[in-house]
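Field reference: "sequence" (input) and "structure" (output). Example, ABC transporter:
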Amino acid sequence: MVLAMQDTTLATEKTDATETDPSGPVVLRLSRISKSFGGIAALTDVSVTFNAGEVHAVLGENGAGKSTLMNIISGVFQPSQGSLEFNGQPIPAMRPEMAADLGIAIAYQHPAVLSDLSVLENLRVALPPALFEGKSARAVAGDLLDVVGLHVPLQARGDTLTVAQMALLEIAKALAIKPRVLILDEPTASLDQEATDMLFGRIRDVVKSGTSVIYITHRMAELRQIAHRVTVLRDGRKRGEARVSEISDQDLLTMIVGRALGSTFPPKAHPGAGQTNLSVQGLGGDNFKDVSFDVARGQIIGVAGVAGNGQSELMRALAGLQGWDGKVTLNGQALSHHDLLHKAAFMPSDRHAEGLAGGLTIRENASLAALDKFASFGVISRKQEVEEVSETFRSLAVKASSIEAAVSSLSGGNQQKIVLARALLSNPGLVVADEPTQGVDVGARAEIYRILRDVSSAGTPVIVNSSDAAELEGLCDKVIVMSRGKVVETLSGPDVVEARIVAAAVSAAAHADAGLEQSRSRHGIWRHFVQTDNAPAIPLAAVIVVLALFGYSQNPLFLSSFNVSNMLMLATALGFIAIGQNIALLSGGIDLSVGPLAGFMVVVASFFINDGQPWPTILAGFALLFAAGIVVGLVNGVMIRFAKFTPIAATLAMYIGLQGCSFLLRNGPDGYINSDVVAWITLQWGPIPVAFVVLIAFAFAGEYVLRHKRPGWQLRAVGSNEDSARRIGLGVDRIFIAGYLGSALFTALGAVMLMAQIGVGDPQQGVNYTLSSITAVVLGGTSLKGGRGTFIGTVMGAVLLMQVLNAVSFLGLSQTWQYVFQGALILTAALVYSTVRGNARD
């Protein structure tokens, strides 16, 4: 029976009919779900059920509401109207953590992989702790990755993974909890055929065990292979539902796009119709070598092969994004690496990392590479820019409320169209498209294919890398198949068929991974070491030693017991405050209030911790000192998370307020600190202050928590990617506020040391610690973007700063040199860390 419904009423009738013969009982029921964003409806009155032991596919164009519906099921979004039932029980407010407890797992189209955490840490922070209890975490993780055929080092950082590897990691996380409902959002978008076949096998296994699988895809062929039932969404409404065996592809396409579609692929170029306009001879670079091919006018050339065999690197080289050896000739002109950078338009496979500027509007993203085109004498014509961008958007059928809307508000497929729009607007001499239709619906695919063919016919060479052999067959006039970085077969004309492409790729790449792994293993230990957060400790230690020896060579008293003790005492106060600053930075924020907070605490303490005061009063002074830290930390966190202040604005306001309060309490130095208390705080073991040992202990304990305990992973996860952290079920607001509370409490410990050093309540003290703490943290290797950092490096950064200050004094230099040396250290550290980590990532 063929089904081709166009309204919700008919769809509901069919839903009732199909439920009389389900694969299993209803696990999840959504009733009349609606969801709006800023007055724009993403879903309207959608009702659908999902049964146990069944693969239920959800189809629709980009922006049809599929991902919104899945986010409602997984608790990321709350519906504006409608209800959810799980196993017959109503769920009033689904949350990600609740969804996980119920056994609902989701593998997102854009993986919720935290780039600053290792593969092992990504698994441990996202999965229930019980999964690892009583077992070796590495063994459990290895088993989970083996299930999906992902073979990467567990210590590899998330940002070193390819898009395909991230997708497999996302699927591994979803399968790990043995879910009752498994949501797969475009799971094969970045997978090759081998990985896709593996995934289908895993899906069939979980369905046999009674799991309900919700499968979102744009690929009609996959629907026939894996799904039992299908629901179609269009413009946020349900347009139909049917058993897959009872509906034709044409009827499905009509429901998806609302109209009958012609051929997906435009006609190919006539054989021998044009002269060669692009010639690549003996091209070699990172992970590929001796690649040669020619492109005739009107032709589109495809690049195929099992993922990881040099295709992506070749595409980046042809776009001028990495160096190469060989010869590239475009329209008779030999081009260099730098020439290609300006001539080629690149469509990257990972649009989020490389294709889009998330903070810019849709218009700004589209016109970014063509600003010269819209400018006269350096002034951009907004009218011309808007007209050309709007015209390009119309040709691509981009669905957006306005070209001035944030690009992040678009669906994945529409974001991909923005990447294509930018490529076209730049009037390139060469188009290099790496997985150009990844995550794009069937209607938009046809439009993209047509545009690429028009560009090629107009004389611009087009090179397409795709993991979809059927796409290469339908679109390309010639296909080169790569294995181990080399071209193993070139197919053209009638030989460009899916079977030939797949056969050439699989047979040639049977042992490709082993060859690549051998080349990688020689540098594996070094690569993973320099990617660790504690790698900066080695150059820091070297600088500290060199500076100590230099100071001693100029003045032997530089390493005297008195001077060493003095430097370490100063470093202890800064070290505690810097650890607090580090916590804020790790969470993705910053705390400008730490300096005035430390000074304010000392002023407060100066009213209670005095000579002649009874011990209960002294203890009350310490209690008030820490209570002030708790209040300030909570207020900072709440202002940022709930009052929507930026971290800089919130903590700057607190900076000013605390400094003012200090002067209200004391208009000058007064209230001398109890000498016995000072003696206890400054107690030493030889030249080493006991407090400095305590600082080191805190640093190592904090480091252990960061690397091996769930609170540490959660803190770094929030700083690494707040959206991904929320999607894996973390309480982002709670973690962020706890981070600012921790920052204030460590600042309180620093204030105790500062109190002992100055011995008096002085409202002018402490302010400089804000800048010094940030400097120490940066020297220690912590990222100002969040997610990456180390307490050990932070303490070493504090020691180095105090050592520089002391050396300037011993060498008889002016205070100006102190700031010169600090600035030079920061710039050098930033340059070294970014360069080394960048090379290691490559």
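The chain has three domains: 8-108+177-257, 276-496, 529-841.
DSSP finds 32 helices and 26 strands in the chain.
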